[in-house]
């Protein structure tokens, strides 16, 4: 199976030179560590920063510099700051090329559920609904199955939706899938994983193009 680093490296391959990129909370934030050195991208955070730098070393920590997940970050010479209205104007206006997000469920047609589980306390939906509606490409990184073993790639989501038909790619520890024209397709299998294993652990119907 792919470990966290390998999942992030695979997702990072979707980021191209010149892209404006938004990274979701959790595993997606780690993707920044695996962006190829020969390309220049700009990281955008919906709490009002464009041009985020890497995570700080202990002596670089500035409590006022945080990303949307409240992790401390660093600034770059070209970093800029603005209010939330401007930040979401960038997102809603289609100026962000790709968002890499986590998920609770993804359906075979690209529906995304990633903001709440009914009955559990949540602080709010955050910016995910705006991101999936406004960015040009949505890539999801997630565990293939929930802690109880239930599939997270499903025929139809049964959790509250963040967006319908918005996901373009899914990367899990078992492999990588694309979603085009409401069809889920397996395009890569992780090492030491079999196709039968993926079929057993997946509720969604998918095609294979390896």
Helix-strand layout with pairing:
Blueprint: H1 4-12, E1 20-23, E2 42-45, E3 49-52, E4 75-81, H2 84-92, E5 98-101, E6 105-107, E7 112-113, H3 128-134, E8 137-141, E9 153-154, E10 169-171, E11 175-180, E12 183-189, H4 195-201, E13 207-208
Parallel strand pairs: 1-2, 1-5, 5-8, 6-9, 8-10, 12-13
Antiparallel strand pairs: 2-3, 3-4, 6-7, 10-11, 11-12
Tell me what you see in this structure:
- This protein is α/β, with parallel strands linked by helices.
- It has a single domain (4-208), classed as 3-Layer(aba) Sandwich (Glutaconate Coenzyme A-transferase), CATH 3.40.1080.
- Helices cover 15% and strands 25% of the residues.
- It contains 4 helices and 13 strands.
- The strands form 2 sheets. The chain has a 10-stranded mixed β-sheet, with helices on both faces. A 3-stranded mixed β-sheet has the order 7-6-9, with no helix packed on it.
- The longest helix is centred in the N-terminal third of the chain and has 9 residues, at 4-12.
- The model has no long low-confidence stretch (mean pLDDT 93).
Helical residue percent?
A: 10-25%
Number of DSSP helices? 4
Structural class: alpha/beta
Strands ordered across the widest β-sheet: 4-3-2-1-5-8-10-11-12-13
- CATH homologous superfamily? Glutaconate Coenzyme A-transferase
Residue fraction in strands: 25-35%
Poorly predicted regions? none
| Overall strand count | 13
CATH architectural type: 3-Layer(aba) Sandwich
* CATH classification, class level: Alpha Beta
Shape: globular
Q: What multimeric state do the chains show?
A: single chain
The sequence of SSEs as H and E is HEEEEHEEEHEEEEEHE
Average predicted confidence as pLDDT: 93
Under CATH, the topology can be stated as: Glutaconate Coenzyme A-transferase
Largest sheet: 10 strands, mixed
**Backbone CA Rg:** 17 Å
The domain tally reads 1
Q: State the separation between the terminal residues, measured CA to CA.
A: 17 Å
């Amino acid at each position: 199976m792919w470990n966290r680093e390998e999942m992030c490296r695979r997702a990072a391959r979707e980021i191209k030179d010149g892209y404006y990129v938004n990274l979701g909370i959790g595993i997606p934030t780690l993707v920044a560590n695996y962006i190829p050195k020969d390309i220049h991208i700009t990281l955008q955070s919906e709490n009002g920063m464009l041009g985020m730098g890497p995570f700080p070393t202990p002596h670089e920590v500035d409590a006022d510099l945080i990303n949307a997940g409240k992790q401390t970050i660093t600034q770059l010479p070209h970093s800029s700051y603005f209010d939330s209205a401007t930040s979401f104007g960038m997102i809603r206006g289609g100026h962000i090329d790709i968002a890499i997000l986590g998920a609770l469920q993804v359906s075979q047609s690209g529906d995304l559920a990633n903001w709440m589980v009914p009955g559990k306390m949540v602080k709010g939906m955050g910016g995910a609904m705006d991101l999936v509606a406004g960015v040009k490409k949505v890539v999801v990184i997630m565990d293939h199955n929930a802690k109880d073993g239930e599939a997270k790639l499903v025929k139809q989501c049964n959790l509250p939706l963040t967006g319908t038909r918005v996901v373009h790619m899914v990367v899990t520890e078992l492999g990588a899938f694309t979603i085009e024209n409401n069809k889920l397709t397996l395009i890569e299998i992780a090492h030491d994983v079999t196709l039968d294993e993926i079929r057993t652990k997946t509720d969604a119907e998918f095609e294979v193009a390896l």
